Amino acid sequence: MKTLFCLLAAACAVVFPPRACAAPAKQDDVAREFLWQQFRELPADARPRVGVALSGGGAKGFAHVGVLQILSDAGFPVDCLAGTSMGSVVGSMYCAGLPFEKIWEIGGAASFAKVSGDYNAVGMLELVLSQKLFSSEKMESFVNSYMGGKTFDQLKIPFSCSAMDLKTGENIVFREGPVAIAVRASMNIPGLFSPVQYRQRYLVDGGVADFLPVQSARDMGADWVLASVTLGDYSAAKFHSILSYVMQVMDIRGAILAEAAMKKADFVVEPHVSDISFVELNRCPQAGERGVLAMNENIASAEESLIFFSINEIASQYNK
Amino acid sequence: MKSRRNIISSILLACVFAAACAPARAGFLFWGGEKPSVLEPARELFARGDYAGSAELFEAALASPAAGAADKKLAYWFLGQCHERAGKDDRALSDYQIAVRIYPKDMQLLLALGRLYQKTGLLDNAQAIFLKILNLDSGSFEANIGLAQIYMKEGFHGKAEKHYSAALESMAVRDAALWRGYAESAFAQRKYEAARGITDRALAMDSGDAETLLLSARIYGESGDKTAALAEIARAQAAAPERSDIVLRRALWLAASGDTDKSLALSQAELIKRPDDPLASLAAALAYMKSGRPALARPRLLAAAESKEEPFIARAALQLLKTLPE
Fold this sequence. Notes:
- The complex is a heterodimer.
- Helices cover 48% and strands 12% of the residues of chain A.
- Chain A is an alpha/beta fold.
- In chain A, strands 1, 2, 3, 4, 5, 6, 7 and 8 form an 8-stranded mixed beta sheet that branches.
- In chain A, a hairpin with a 2-residue loop joins strand 5 (196-198) and strand 6 (201-205).
- The longest helix of chain A is centred in the C-terminal third of the chain and has 26 residues, at 284-309.
- Residues 1-21 of chain A have low confidence and may be disordered.
- Chain B has 18 helices and no strands.
- By secondary structure, chain B is an all-alpha fold.
- Mean pLDDT of chain B is 89; it is low at 1-10 and 15-29.
- Helix content of chain B is 75%, strand content 0%.
- The interface between A and B is large, with 49 and 66 residues.
């Protein structure tokens, strides 16, 4: 009996070891945690305005959900958000105040399947035979299904999204009116979907004009901008369909535009999603998880960047 | 019922680990109740800490036709343990991988492999193994804890909370560190009420755990109760008076709250021990700034800005210097 007791006691000590002496925290970590809390306690009108820019990228762009989730967990304020293409889809959901559980659920294969039916082989054959582009109305209905016909001014966080005017090449930034048609225009792949006719313009995917809308975030008043960029590996592409050609052009154009825009951002996070193609909407949840991993890895650096950017405001609480 | 099953499985699991250090006869406790006598010499050496010697004997036992299936499972497990304890993690990984290929549903071997993957930073592999274990036994305490820790590290705070809950809520596990991990997973999602409740449970198990007290302070601080936060940091300091990081954390928060005299007393005491301590210098500088003495803050910020070991503090100090009034 005594032996059995001793054995069980030893067992418990191994599985549930006594309290280990915790190593002291690193000084930099203590200081960062403290100054971050000081930043977070600043009134919204007494600190820099924080903006987030979400790139295009099709299914890859669902990584932005993971990025936003980690920012939210870390207590990052988001004062305004600009999105392009998939960035506008994710951004609209976030700015409308949808809980993350709901956004992840929407990103599940079942929901996106409703709008991605045109991307399959039968859809492509139909496109070639009829020589007639698809309509992206499904996307508008999809956005309305979670947005409930909201207009930009009804969103909880100021939001803008970008599309391109097919006749002038202008980058059109939507900041007012109904959200759903603007998001539809922003994610309206050229060569696949017919242009969206809206406000006397023919509009296509914003990814070809403003892939990463850092400037739009600045135009909304952001002083400090975090950019989430989801680029494809276009060097690995195989051209087996019309769609793959179109996506290749979109990816290359996106990468060129992103390179310039990233230089204007204060902080850039790039989830590793290059292996996910533009139209693999069934891989949205996977892209989202990659977004979590990428932002989680960089959250301390992002906090540091914002602390240094706000040092005058933080110091003003001490220099009385 | 589920709770009872979990408790039983955890005790059985505990026995596996205990057997590693126990006399050879304890082998009857696991892997089917068969007495693995062929392994006894190897286990005697293992119990005496001769891992190289016992590894040789376990390898010989694996090659022996006399060894039955239960002996072989046990031998693989011990072989991996020998290599782990001798610091040869690569060899141990190889042992467990081979064993799991032969016995793909053996929980103890799967757990050993999963835990070693986790220990060596191969988190994707560890995750896959722990998920496999949960498929075999959804109540596995170790697999749930392993997954919770991995998810927490990767930023999947909600999933981490779910697995901590599955492991801890239905069991009478009195391990403050695990409960603290659970509380951290709730806190990371800004679920302050839940985090506070779990932290209270951890503190009820071990009221002197400084890390749990610091977490409690952060929860109070972020949810707006600065007085309670400061009180918790003071308790943490009392629990671990040797830790300068806690002393200086308290000094920083006292400075922020306006209690600059107390703050300075703490940071100055640390500066007497280590005159160029970067965090103590920063804390002292902030207290001087808060009390309207920028001239005294300047030399402290200059000292902190010199730090090579703490680049964040150095840069913050340099920037704060520029904000000081002339």
